[in-house]
Specification:
158 residues, alpha/beta, Signal recognition particle alu RNA binding heterodimer, srp9/1, 2,3-Dihydroxybiphenyl 1,2-Dioxygenase, domain 1, 2 domains, 4-stranded mixed beta sheet, 5 helices, 28% strand
Length: 158
């Protein structure tokens, strides 16, 4: 079966971004850096692609120039085991970026991330519509997801 690898287009910061992402996630690293040659189109000796992995998931970052930029139309979801993980990834990825609603943020490179507790999908799909509605209302009022507040809202205590 073929492997699907997400490619991320940067202007000139592919290596810097890959190194940053590898510093945030455990079991991560740079695998291969390919440089432009004298035929271009970038300056010879500068990175054109950076193959890296984040905790076992492969990515390629490309320095393709300013032609394309990131938008919220695609994001990377980080499902966290607990509030400590939510706090860690939220703080690291949002540093120098922009926080948004419902666990969304843009990092310093403009890439959108969703940093959420793993329980979020289950809470939003609660078979009791009142519980699900309270959970949704609580989530919509948050930037970084507060798991305790979300659980309290679902239970009707928030």
């Amino acid at each position: 079966m073929p492997q699907i690898v997400t490619n991320l287009w940067f202007d000139t910061q592919a290596l810097e971004a890959a190194e940053f992402y590898c510093s945030v996630f455990p079991n991560s690293g740079i695998d291969v850096v390919t440089d432009y040659t004298d035929v271009g189109p970038g300056p010879a000796g500068t990175p054109v692609t950076v193959d890296f992995h984040l905790d076992g998931t492969r990515f390629t970052a490309i320095n393709g120039g300013p032609v394309f930029t990131f938008s919220e139309a695609i994001s990377l979801l980080v499902e966290c085991a607990d509030q400590a993980e939510v706090d860690h990834y939220w703080d690291a990825l949002s540093a120098g970026g922009e926080v948004q609603q419902c666990g969304w943020l843009k990092d310093r490179y403009g890439l959108s991330w969703q940093v959420v507790p793993a329980q979020l999908a289950e809470l939003m799909a609660d078979p009791d519509p009142a519980r699900a509605s309270r959970g949704m209302a609580a989530m919509l009022s948050m930037q970084k997801i507060d798991l305790a507040a979300l659980l309290a809202a679902v239970e009707g205590d928030g």
